[in-house]
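Cross-posted from the bioinformatics board.
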Amino acid sequence: MDHKIAVVGDKDSVLPFKILGFDVFASPTAQKARETIDSLAQQNYGVIYLTEAMAKEIPDTIKRYDAEVQPAIILIPNHKGSLNIGKNRIEENVEKAVGQNIL
Amino acid sequence: MKKGKIIKVSGPLVMAEGMEHANIQDLCYVGDMRLVGEIIEMRNDVASIQVYEETSGLGPGEPVETTGEALSVELGPGIISQMFDGIQRPLDTFKAKTESNFLVRGVNISALDRDKKWAFKSIKAVGDYVEAGDIIGSVQETKVITHHIMVPYGVKGTIKSIEDGEFTLEDVVYTIETEDGIKEQTMMQRWPVRRGRPFKKKLNPDKPMLTGQRVIDTFFPITKGGAAAVPGPFGAGKTVVQHQIAKFSDVDLVVYVGCGERGNEMTDVLNEFPELIDPNTGESIMERTILIANTSNMPVAAREASIYTGITIAEYFRDMGYSVAIMADSTSRWAEALREMSGRLEEMPGDEGYPAYLGSRIAEYYERAGRILTIGSEEREGSITAIGAVSPPGGDTSEPVTQNTLRVVKVYWALDSSLAQKRHFPSVNWLTSYSLYLSEVGSHLNDELKQGWSEMVQHAMTILQEEAELQEIVRLVGIESLSEKDRLTMVIAQSLREDYLQQNAFDDVDTFTSRQKQFLMLDLILSFETEAREAMRLGAYFKEINEGTEALRDKIARVKYISEDNLSQIDEIKQEIKDKLHQIVAEGGMTQNA
């Protein structure tokens, strides 16, 4: 089964992804982002890219999909640079899986 | 009559020679003290006798006299509210006569009071044709139990004379003209305990017995005429479960056999029961209870007999058309008594030293339970529900007594020491227990309550089973790794466990739950689930539901303390659940981000 990819975040950061053919959803507020992600999860989206700046505002929403198979929410830096949230999450998961931070 | 002579004494087992005139299962008087005993084995003229009293001081050469009669119980008015020992000697008269708190040997007292007069009211008239089992009249024995006087087994004919009035048990109340002459009858009859009383037909037990215990009535119900086993290690609450059922089950009469357990437990019964009010009749429950006590310091052989004495009395009341429940606490002590006698008889031991016939003896006892049509021309319907506690050593249910019991009973309430340690009472483990009557009771209750009772029960059980699976994941990787849906399942299951299954036997309201209240409580918890799942579907997060309904769930937890008269409060809470969850959906995360 084919899945679609969505990008969610502030308008300036996500717009360039349109060139690559991703579905882009600009959300100016956290509330809007939460609603967008919840509705995307109901549809056929396998991967949702979310800007770190926005992720900081809606930790509950991200947590909610942590235990679900799909969609996978992948955090990306925005145009202002990385907040390291995405990388920390990967490190955390690695630690959970192998018992030690090997990165 | 010719007397035998003792040749060997080994604890409660006495061997006597010169007994060729005696038969197996005859009652004997043993020794100069005339202790009561029963012949359990015959080899040529040597009889092995199990003595129902302490045998110290007995020696070879002393005489043994057989009565030629089997061990029997006396059945008639005066039996209810009494406490008997294993061979039906009333313990209070015993104490008055011997002026001792302990059993004195060689005392011969009749089981039923011979001097007391009972008001007999006939319902049959002179000239009526009666058969064995027909009711010819009745005595109002206690406020709740009418003692029907039945024509004894083996007698039929026309009534020659019958009168109303005050009689003692020895007075002739009616005479019957039979084929072999006129027979005079009193209000009392005798029956050998080891033989089941006859009945016409066994029926399928399909009517539920309400015990007022939620975990039992909802998930593992027993029917009137069914048989159940309650195995559990020490301290798991076997005795409390048995007491609760004896107190609150909706049967007409309860026979409680305290068999080899602590004397204090029988004292508890004697202290508590007279004060308790039966929710079905409004009278003291002692008015419908018969106690048989053979505590751990009483003679071992009488323990073996106590179970049979109990069930014979139960059968007698069953024949009157009553539904009777018999509790035996505990059948393991009874099996140990069998083992002790078998060892002394030098029989070949089976598993764990129990005799090879353990299984057939246990089956024999439980098979005397059932729903039946009585003999006689009236065909009343009566039932005996047998509930036996089993105390497997170390809580290991793979031992012979538990295994042989499970082979014959259809309901298994497994008490779990780990639940008891968590203070979850009654500690009936919902994953290992079972009831094979579930579908019969379910369809019966579906008709009675007019709602999908069995689906609700099934659904609740599914949630509890899912929880057990999820618990394993949580133990491995933590609660964080569960999806929102699963975490909600955990919350509902917790509510089911703590708010529904747990029941406080020592709380005035919580100790008994009527069927209607059980239905409302279960419905409340499941409607919370439906609403919460719906809210989640509409976009609410688990965290919001969990935090938003904290006060509400507290209210659900307190529902068990709502008294039976105020059940409408439960509906109010149900409405509150709806309103609250609609509100959570409407806010939809606004609270934290606004």
